[in-house]
Amino acid sequence: MTISLAGEAYVGYLLGSVRILAWLVVVPPFSSRSFPSSVKVVLALGLAMASTPALAETQVPMQAFALVVEVVTQVAIGAAMGLVTMILLAAIGAAGSLIDVFGGFSLAQGFDPLSMNSSTVFGTFHQLMATTLLFVTGLHLIVVGGLLKTFQALPIGESPDLSGGSQVVISVFEMFFVVAVQIALPVIAVMFMADLGLALLTKVAPQLNAINVMFPAKVGLTLLVLGMSFTVLPGALERLVEHVLDAMAAVAGLG
Fold this sequence. Notes:
The protein is mainly alpha-helical and 255 residues long. Helix content is 74%, strand content 3%.
């Protein structure tokens, strides 16, 4: 029995795998060293299989130089989509880092296994919680589905429209800072009021050592308010996923 493969369809499938692989290399937790490179390659090939109908209809260049240019283009597209995804999903971890700064936990450092570097305590905790919620709630399937739909908006062989690239980057960073501040704002407000109250207490009772009172009080208030704020994380993550889909669509030329 002889099995024949269409050359253009096979090359289109491999180019689609290149775009997905570039996305996986950038987006955590897939970008972590705990995910072997072979696993990323197999995962990219498997996800590209789901987009085979869209990839089979594309016009793929078969000349050597044009093919190399197309590979570089797909790597750039996948990396750009992965970058906006990584930035937006890191907003919850950034909120935890802000809480550490105002709550007095920034002096303690913890190891973040996703980014493979040291981070603040609640910054690492929030990032791990966001990743866990992403997979538990099934939102990772929506993100991956949005990535696969970009093959319909930006097929293999077509160049992306870079005219709105600067606006996409500005919007992504704007959303990153807004979401991080909104999540951390209740704790920041409570810490500000606590510092203000301790300052007034020092004026009223100068003989009271405010430093000995300040740290235990701020730690207790931080843990109390932080525990109450965990209920907003699922809703914030859902909104972030929606923005991730919009950002990837904008990179593909739909925004």
